[in-house]
Design a protein that fits this description.
74% helix; single chain; 0% strand; mainly alpha; 168 residues
């Protein structure tokens, strides 16, 4: 239960407020997930129009470039885990409205961070024409978005200080 909360999480008003916030979070997450195929379409269109597509920038050392982009994607995944855990940990105290706001912000930040590997892969494709690397990083983003998709049961568990998954 939320510590020091003047309003019970079982009250109909609180549950309605939480459902509305959750619905907005689901819409945001759904819109971001729906945006992922546009990267895929852009890659395929560029590959078809500029066959063979070797990127827009001549790459002197492709392996170093690829490792740098993958390292950036791994760093984003680590940052995502840390930020998500910190935002959710911070959201376990205070009144109900503040806790719902923190859950909503945590969802928005997490979904934005989850999209970054696809952007990194898209950048790698544009620079060097590495379409397989784009697909790998696109898949990483899709998995992260699925993992962090806002679920009502998870929100309720966090509001009751009983998270359903490992916080880190």
């Amino acid at each position: 239960m939320i510590q020091g909360s003047p309003e019970s999480i079982q009250s109909p008003e609180f549950r309605e407020r939480m459902r509305r916030a959750h619905k907005a979070a689901v819409r945001l997450a759904g819109a971001m997930i729906a945006g992922l195929p546009f990267y895929l379409a852009a890659v395929e269109i560029l590959r078809a129009v500029r066959r063979p597509f070797a990127g827009f920038v001549p790459v002197a050392d492709p392996p170093v470039l690829r490792y740098a982009f993958y390292a950036a994607a791994v760093a984003v995944v680590i940052v995502l885990r840390i930020v998500n855990a910190a935002l959710l940990r911070r959201g376990r105290t205070g009144d109900g409205r503040a806790a719902i706001g923190r859950l909503s912000r945590a969802n928005a930040v997490t979904m934005v961070l989850a999209e970054i590997p696809a952007l990194i892969g898209f950048g790698l494709f544009l620079v060097g024409g590495f379409n397989r690397d784009f697909y790998v990083l696109f898949f990483v983003s899709a998995v992260l978005m699925f993992m962090y998709f806002p679920r009502l049961r998870t929100w309720e568990a966090h509001l009751q200080n009983a998270p359903t998954a490992c916080p880190f």
